[in-house]
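Feature request, filed as a ticket because there's no other form

It would be nice if the structure record came with a short human-readable summary line next to the tokens. Right now we just get the raw output. Example of a typical job, pasted below so the devs can see what we mean:
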Amino acid sequence: MKELELKYGCNPNQKPSKIYVANGEELPITVLCGKPGYINFLDAFNGWQLVKELKEATGLPAATSFKHVSPAGAAVGLPLDDTLKKIYWVDDMGELSPLACAYARARGADRMSSFGDFIALSDVCDKDTASIIKREVSDGVIAPGYTEEALEILRAKKKGNYNVIQIDPDYRPAPLEHKEVYGITFEQGRQELPINDELLSKIVTKNQELTDAAKMDLKISLITLKYTQSNSVCFVKGGQAIGIGAGQQSRVHCTRLAGQKADNWFLRQSPKVLGLKFVDGIGRADRDNAIDVYIGNEYMDVLAEGAWQRIFKVKPEVFTEEEKRAWLDQMAEVTVGSDAFFPFSDNIERAKKSGVKYIAQPGGSVRDDLVIETCDKYGMVMAFTGIRLFHH
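Raw output as currently delivered:
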């Protein structure tokens, strides 16, 4: 197949629409089910590159959950503890394969953003992973292959209309890429820079102790940023992104957004949230939304008389700011990556509030000395990568 006609472009009025390889070669994909659209393929191809690089960098199966051409989550296939199984709603599924753990993490870290995602998997999709996908609201999945059991599960989703794409893992694009805007063609070399330990070798802080776990998490952060709409900042802990701030014009707004998402991820693990008693039959999305509101500033929207009875069996106590801060103060060993330099130390101050200890950023700001000084004040480890990772 050399080209695939699509229903429409980004919006229904943008017709005609299709995908093809400019040099006339065969497309490296096969659509096994459904009819993916323009944005689906943007998410699929960006997501596939991300998980492919995560697998190469860590040696572990990887998954990502994409929304609007940026990852809502990305992770590698480390085992889940009981708390993570519960907050990711997979505690009823028994032992999961490494790939399924990777997707549970990628989907679960920011469930509000992942709703209606497009999934990318580094490895052949197995039954465990397909079983998680089956129960979530999602637009489609791309992977290098599918087991028969997995394909049967996915083909039954959305009454047979779920988008399932198989990609040739050996496909290599041309070294130059092109993009057309307003009738003008842009050309550039592909972003082929490998994200490896060498990139993290220039440590500029007094604390030089970059652990192996932190190295892995920083690589996950930087690879995630390669495929996130800029400006972007990514918080990572334990092999998964826990907060991604994408597409903000101000660097500190990226950090605040990513930090707030990281905070929400950790607050969901608190006894107060784990102890919430939901009414029988509540939908997964309604439950996720209720938790998000409960741990936020608009908590009375779900605790007001007449509102809480529709969500909870027992009215929860208010999760006070003091209680939330005390819980968040336990968060530690978090890593953060930035796709461009931190121009001010306010980014470091905000990162500290979310337990950040390890940082990777390009460096090159006129205020690098102040940023380093702030890191030293908190005993942080910061590496200057010397490279920018803008993605548009």
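Something like this underneath would help us a lot:
The mean pLDDT is 96.
The longest strand covers residues 70-76.
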